[in-house]
Amino acid sequence: MLQRVAVGRWSLDAYQGVVPDPILEGLREQAKALRGARILHVNATAYGGGVSELLRSSVPLLRDLGLSVDWKVIAGSQDFFRATKALHNALQGAPQTLSEAEQTAYMQCTRENATLLDHGYDFVVLHDPQPAGLLSVHGRGGARWVWRCHIDTSEPNPEAWHFLRPLLADFDAAVFTMPEFVPPDLPVARVRTIAPAIDPLSPKNLDISDRTASQILDWIGVDRPGRLVTQVSRFDPWKDPLGVIAAYRLVREEIPDLQLALVGSMALDDPEGWEVYGQLTERAESDPLIHMYTNLTGASNVEVNAFQRLSDVVVQKSIREGFGLVVSESLWKGTPVVAGRAGGIPMQMPAGVGGVLVDSVEECAAGMLRLLNDRELAKQLGQSGREHVREHFLLPRLLMEELQLLAALR
User: Which element (helix H / strand E) includes 68?
Assistant: First the structure.
């Protein structure tokens, strides 16, 4: 059997007064049509990254609504996860693709995991490229199968797409964050676009006082008071952390005491993260005002909450992005964001809402400087961003749309 991820219990009633009432009622009504349905979600890791965060919050709420839901993770060797990272990058348009050895490692691990997957579900949802080959090996049985792609596959590397495309042919539906992300010649007839969302009541996003947040940052080693900009993301070239350091150093020319925190998660399915972390450490080691933290060195969800809440500006300088949950996380806390104009970020920050969209290091520096120097503008953008997230990007809305899709597949 695949490894089942244990989650806690939670009730949709807890979101009353936090999430708009029409969304909560819509979710309850939609769940009635599927009550008793057996649903399996499969991804590659139980921690690190947006997919695992979404599932950790989603599964308890779906169970509270009367559905039988499991979350399981596939197992893999280092060769497999190197292959899936190469596939991930190639599907986002990177020039490199999978070698023959990496393709072999991917399919071998897929076959091994397929033998561990049981048949006792009405719906199986596979998240991202890592488990995408399971259906082609396992067979559909009596279930409906959905591939949920969280990354930007609008311009995939042709060789990588040639490898993955046949593995998707038998899915009943595919889900993408934006219509623009649907790859060319997708062999799945039913396609839906569903934007991700954040859980406002998770430890990362629940309300904590500024005093508590300040104590947390003091404990982790960030001096307060003091002006602070932060990027929270995986240590991934697509998030351009080196570009963040370059932009920060331009701002430091005018604000010499400004601090920068780079806060990232190390995930089992992302071996490239350690390489990027090493590059950043080398670049930052001579600068005591640059702080680097990971989930392995004390920066867990509560610490991230404090960073996003007390930073003067949050940066998300992505070059390619699926959605960028950290943008909505920061805006939910009323903190303005300077972010790359990539993927799903602009839908979280429409014109005049939430912060500033940028396309270069220089624009990133100018955006940070503008918000650091204009506190009233920063406050206004943060407040408008929070309301935009409340209306569009909180978890119950996501669950309602996902259940609508499953009901349509019955």
Answer: strand 68-73
Q: What whole-number distance in Å separates Cα of residue 88 and Cα of residue 98?
A: 10
pLDDT of residue 49: 77
Which token pair is 212?
């508590």
pTM here is 0.92
**199 Cβ neighbours under 8 A, 6+ residues apart:** 53, 54, 57, 205, 394, 395
pLDDT in tens, 38-47: 999 999 999 8
Among residues 179, 193, 205, 196, the alpha carbon closest in space to that of 396 is found at 196
User: What residue type is 203 in one-letter code?
Assistant: P
| Spatial separation of the C-alpha atoms in residues 48 and 382, rounded to whole Å | 26
Q: Read off the DSSP letter of residue 16.
A: B
Report the C-alpha gap between 101 and 288 in whole angstroms.
Answer: 42
Q: Which of 312, 244, 239, 254 is nearest to 284 (CA)?
A: 244
Tell whether the model's pLDDT for residue 223 goes beyond 90: no
The string of pLDDT tens digits covering residues 243-264 is 999 999 999 999 999 999 999 8
Grouping H, G, I as helix, E, B as strand and the rest as coil, residue 43 is strand
**Dist. CA 182–CA 189, nearest whole Å:** 12
Distance CA 366, CA 374 (A): 12
